[in-house]
Amino acid sequence: MEEFVQIRELDYSEMPLVKQLFKENLWILDRLIFTGAFNSIMKDKEKNTGTSFVAIRNDQVVGSISVRLFDIKGEKHGLIDSVVTARQMHGKGIAGKILNAVISWLESANCRHIYATVDRYNSRSWNMFIHNGFTLFEFPAQMKLFGADFFKVWAREGYFFGIGLIFLKKQQPGQTVEESGQFYHHCLGFAGFLLPWFFLALWGGSNVAVFPYLVPLSLVSFTGHEYIHALIASLFGIKTYFKANEPGILFSLALSLLGGIYPFYGSTYIRQIDWSYDSLKNSPANGLIYFFGPITSIAIALLFNYLAGISVGYWHAAFSIGVFINVALAVANLLPLNASGGFPFDGTKIYRWNKGFWALAVAIVAISVYFIF
Fold first, then answer.
1. DSSP 3-state assignment of 242?
2. Tens of pLDDT, residues 209-227
3. Residue 333 to residue 335: CA distance in whole angstroms
4. Which burial class, exposed, middle or buried, applies to 299 when counting CB atoms under 10 A from its CB (0-12, 13-18, 19+)?
5. Both 119 and 194 in a single domain?
């Protein structure tokens, strides 16, 4: 007999139960981010501009979704946040039931604009939103609807720091949002790749005149790393697409102006409908798609290192910078870490698939760096 699960709005006295849910089901960085957002939303609850819905089973919270309301240009907008279900409840439709309760709550508040942010690699959450009428809501569409108020929306969501998160919008009758094309994403992603490295080069003492020389080398580095993912995926019959990440680009630019670097300009995702990354954790396809990213970057670094040795002037400076760019890209992408929001680096995907291949990639990069430097 199926156990009874109650879906309802959270009572203040149950806040510790939600935080316990976070503690047991989220890694530490996500737990800190989700807890901060949850505390903020519960303060909004006092003003009827936010709330949390929970799933209760045996007096325990086994699922939670938070939501907040805000006004832009005289219209109500709702932002869904902090979707978490207990691991033992995955696949039982609990999150979908809570989401329906949240949507009903927003619609009863005469809210026609409903959004969510989700990590594309979180297949369960992504597919749930897609099947509930949510579609991509990208930066050009955000600017068209919000104008300068997009800063307000990003700030409320913590989107500046949720590297890897993607905005979605629930489609309503009469509302349509067109997805941005790959040309837009490639151009924006390349700009987000190039400019931080250029500013960092200036910090290192390079002349501004090196910029025209750095552009083609950055293009080789960018396309080499990203297109190898698409090429390997195609060998397995898998469709991919590249998506620039605007908050990651802004964060990278700001950090580079201070002399630091955080190479997150976007990522190559598997595009197929109802695709689950969980099904690929132990698959050679997922591992090899991302294994060749850092390997390609270190190969480009070796090529640029050779060309730097036979070049002079600005070409020598540009190739030297290109070496550093590709080494940093290879090393960063091999780290078996998740960024805030749960976004996994290439190294995480490789490590989960096959620790031996991950160690091989680390060894290749380490030996290459030894000969380069």
1. strand
2. 999 999 999 999 999 999 9
3. 6
4. middle
5. no
Three-class DSSP category at 50: strand
Q: Based on the fold, state whether residues 22 and 152 are members of the same structural domain.
A: yes
Q: Which residue has the higher pLDDT, 337 or 75?
A: 75
- Distance CA(277)–CA(122), nearest Å, equals 7
pLDDT at residue 168 above 60? Answer: yes
Tell me which residue has tokens 């959004």.
115
pTM of this prediction? 0.86
* Mean pLDDT for the stretch of residues 178-203: 92
The token duo for 14 is 């149950």
- Residue numbers of the domain that contains 343: 182-372
Q: Please check whether residues 190 and 137 belong to one and the same domain.
A: no
Asked whether the beta carbons of 117 and 81 are under 8 A apart, the reply is yes
**pLDDT value at residue 1:** 36
C-alpha 369/C-alpha 373 separation (Å) is: 6
CB neighbour list of residue 93: distance below 8 Å, 6 or more residues apart: none
H or E element at residue 116 = strand 113-119
3-state secondary structure of 171: coil
- Torsion-angle region of 83 (φ positive above 0: left; ψ -120 to 50: alpha; else: beta): beta
